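Q: A reviewer asked whether we had any structural model of the full assembly, not just the individual parts. We don't, so I'm hoping you can provide one. Inputs are below.
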Amino acid sequence: MSNKVLMKGNEALAEAAIRNGCIYFFGYPITPQTELAEYMAKRLPKVNGVCLQAESEVAAINMVLGAASSGVRAMTSSSSPGISLKSEGISYMVGSDLPCLICNVQRGGPGLGGIQPAQQDYLQATKANGHGDLHLFVVAPASVQEMVSLVGRAFDVADTYRVPAMILADGALGQMMEPVDFDAALSERRELPEKTWATNGHGGKRKKNIVNSLFINPDELEKSVLERYQRYAKIEENEVLYEETMVEDADIVIVAYGITSRICKSAIEMARAEGIKVGLVRPITLWPYPKAALAKAAETAKHFLVVELNMGQMVDDVKVATNCRRPVSFFGRTGGMLPTAEDVLAEIRKINGGIR
Amino acid sequence: MTTEILLAGFGGQGILFAGKQLAKTAMHEDKCVSWLPSYGPEMRGGSANCSVIISDKEIGSPIINRPDVLIAFNLPSFDKFESKIKSGGILIANSTLISTKSTRDDINAYYIPATQMASENGLEGGANVIILGYFLKLTKLFDYDKFVDLMVAGIPATKTKLIENNKKALKLGYDYN
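A: Here is a predicted structure for the entire assembly that you could use as a starting point for your response.
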């Protein structure tokens, strides 16, 4: 057998972060994410790292800001309500052009909500995880293996473009165990720019660096935002990730990410057995969004079906990407409920009846 | 082939451990595996369950709605999930804590007084492994010796008593008729 180990998503993600050189973790406990912080607390002291349980989420994200300013890889993790608390600090990190990794193991909301898996933070993560003009690089893993492989990718993109990256997972992925191959996940490495901006001490040998998000002069502030959006444009050009399954001949194309995409894959298999031609586009990066892949699918597909664990937060993204060329239906459960593959199949049948 | 196994019972009966042993052994046979525990309000109320899927191909949904095998450790789990077992599927029930019998004629139902066997043999808390032994015999899903080796490998070598007890429990279940 290969070098596989059986691990929980939360723990595997933590181990992957360490293996990608992140030994600075700042967090605050919340279900269903806690195993991630627990793993860091056990492991980081053994690799001369720092795992610090802050007094609050607000404190934790600002500790990440401080650590990232010095040029090291730093991260935090939380679940939905905690991410809302971190949003201010996340915006400050965007404004300061600081790379970092933020992990959101989503649970049901709004408010304190519940602790079961949800995808109700899609809009927050992809559109406005904080104030100001901003984007995060957002990836949505669909397996424990991807909870590992996307960590390196997220850190690399963050370091390359000086942006915070977010892994948008959910309670099911965090809690479930699957075989993980760390060696396979770490094989891909890219060349990273030197962090010449870091405030890391230099003994008077260079001009001092300042990390800051305050630009009181609007000319300067506008310039800094425009420069950042040039980097965003490059991310949109170079860093889109998605997976396509049986899209070529599909009449109905499902669009789903994360754990939901797997439920959809089971449903697609059942639908195909009934002779209904269904395919799947699974966005792996939620920002940048795989617009081109969906536009291309719209050339042949007759109908799109968005499936999410929320009230339809991604539907508009699909409509925009496909320029509303085809009808876009939605099916989802929310508040921590998960649909079954049979539930999704029933939606597919309904749409298929309409197409005929 | 895909086998969906649902294990359910009280918290503390070793449900998650038992499920993990199945998942780990399947992984070592290069199968695709998923292990999904309950961690919600039901866990806080004292009941626990976990879904283990073992397959030759990539696993879609890790959630089990209609198990091929239900291992029920207590009555609430039997009441909740017995009707969900796939036609032609298997029920393994801990008859010490489940006094009723399945009335379904489209499943194979097996009963083992695992909790009683554990206490009679000085293996308190070992009902889960006794049931695993019985499961191995009934399903022949894994090689017995390989299963033992992997189970033992997960226990610190210094805990010799624990290793012996687990081996004994597995054998008891395997030999049960």
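A: Points you may want to mention in the reply: The two ends of chain A are 48 Å apart (CA to CA). Chain A has 13 helices and 14 strands.
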